[in-house]
Specification:
Layout lengths: L8 E4 L5 H12 L3 E6 L3 H13 L3 E6 L5 H15 L4 E4 L14 H25 L5 E5 L12 H20 L6 E7 L5 H4 L4 H8 L10 H12 L10 E4 L6
Bound molecules: NADP nicotinamide-adenine-dinucleotide phosphate.
C-alpha cells in the first residue's frame, strides 16, 4: 500500500477511543509514526497502539491531561524525545455537556472550556514552537456551531472558539509553512455521541444527513487524510464540514 506519510510523525490528542483512535490508525496506515495521547483510558490506548503495530505501523501511547499546560508540554516533549520531530498535530480530545442554559454550573462551564478550548489553544502554542516547518495542525470542531440546537449552547460556544483559534493561527503559522484547519463533524457514532440519547433520537439525527445515517470515525479520519496530504498545502484557515450534507 502507498505510504504518503512515510517519515512523518503525528501526535493525536485523545486518541485512546472514538474519532481520535481512528484518525491515529489512518495516519499510521498512511505511513506516519503516531503518538497516541490518552488521559484515563490506558488500556484502550495500549490496544490502539497494538492494532497499529499489528498492521506494521509504529505508535506509542503517552498519558497527558491536555487541560493542564505542564502535561501538554510533557506530551510534546515526550513525542520529540521518542521520534525526534512532530509534523502533524490533531487536536481531537474534547468532551460534550448538553444542558439548557439554566442547568449549566460554573464547574461544568470551566471543565468544558478547559477540555475543548484551553487544551487546543495551548497545544497550538506548543506546536507553534515545536512543529516542523511544513507541518499540519487540524482542530476537531463540530457542525453543532451551524444548527442552533437547544442544549448545545455551552458546547457550541467552546467549538466556536476553536474555529476562531484556527483562523487566526493559520495566519501566524504561515511563516513556518504550517497549515491550520478545522474539521467539523456532524453526529459520529462514538461513546460521546451515544451517551444519553435514545435510538429514536439517533435515528432522527441520521435522517438529517443526505445519506440517512450517522457518521463514522472513519468518515472523519478520511477528511484528516485529505488535509495532511501534499495536495492540501494551499488549504489553510478553513473549516471543513464533514457531516453527510447536514449543514455547512
Ligand atoms: N462524536 C460526535 O458526534 C462528534 C461530533 C462532532 C465533533 N466531535 C468532536 O470529536 C472529538 C472526539 O470525540 P469522540 O466522539 O471521539 O469522543 P469520545 O469517544 O468520548 O473520545 C474522547 C477522547 O478524548 C480523550 N480525552 C478527553 N479529555 C481528555 C483530556 N483532558 N486529556 C486527554 N485526552 C482526553 C479521551 O481519552 P481518555 O478516555 O483517555 O480520557 C478519548 O480518547 C471531540 O473533540 C468532540 O467534540 C464529536
Amino acid at each position: 500500500m502507498d505510504k504518503p506519510l512515510a517519515g512523518k510523525v503525528a501526535l493525536v490528542t485523545g486518541s485512546s477511543r472514538g474519532i481520535g483512535r481512528e484518525i491515529a490508525r489512518k495516519l499510521a496506515q498512511m505511513g506516519a509514526v503516531v503518538a497516541i495521547n490518552y488521559n484515563q483510558s490506558k488500556s484502550s490506548a495500549e490496544e490502539a497502539c497494538k492494532q497499529i503495530m499489528a498492521a506494521e505501523g509504529k505508535a506509542i501511547a503517552i498519558q497527558a491531561d491536555v487541560t493542564v499546560m505542564a502535561e501538554l508540554q510533557h506530551l510534546f516533549d515526550q513525542t520529540l524525545e521518542k521520534f525526534d520531530k512532530i509534523d502533524i498535530l490533531v487536536n481531537n480530545a474534547g468532551i460534550l455537556i448538553t444542558k439548557k442554559i439554566e442547568q449549566v454550573s460554573e464547574e461544568e462551564y470551566d471543565r468544558l472550556f478547559a477540555s475543548n478550548v484551553k487544551s487546543v489553544f495551548f497545544a497550538c502554542q506548543q506546536a507553534a514552537e515545536k512543529l516542523s516547518p511544513g507541518g499540519r495542525i487540524i482542530n476537531i470542531s463540530t457542525t453543532v456551531t451551524k444548527i442552533m440546537m437547544p442544549g448545545y449552547g455551552l458546547y457550541a460556544a467552546s467549538k466556536g472558539a476553536v474555529d476562531q483559534i484556527t483562523r487566526v493561527l493559520s495566519r501566524e503559522l504561515g511563516k513556518k509553512n504550517i497549515t491550520v484547519n478545522a474539521i467539523s463533524p456532524g453526529p459520529v457514532d462514538t461513546e460521546l455521541f451515544r451517551a444519553g440519547k435514545s435510538e429514536e433520537q439517533i435515528a432522527q439525527m441520521a435522517g438529517m444527513s443526505a445519506f440517512n445515517r450517522i457518521g463514522t470515525p472513519a468518515d472523519v479520519a478520511g477528511a484528516v487524510a485529505l488535509l495532511v496530504s501534499d495536495d492540501a498545502s494551499w488549504i489553510t484557515g478553513q473549516n471543513i464540514y464533514v457531516n453527510g450534507g447536514l449543514a455547512g
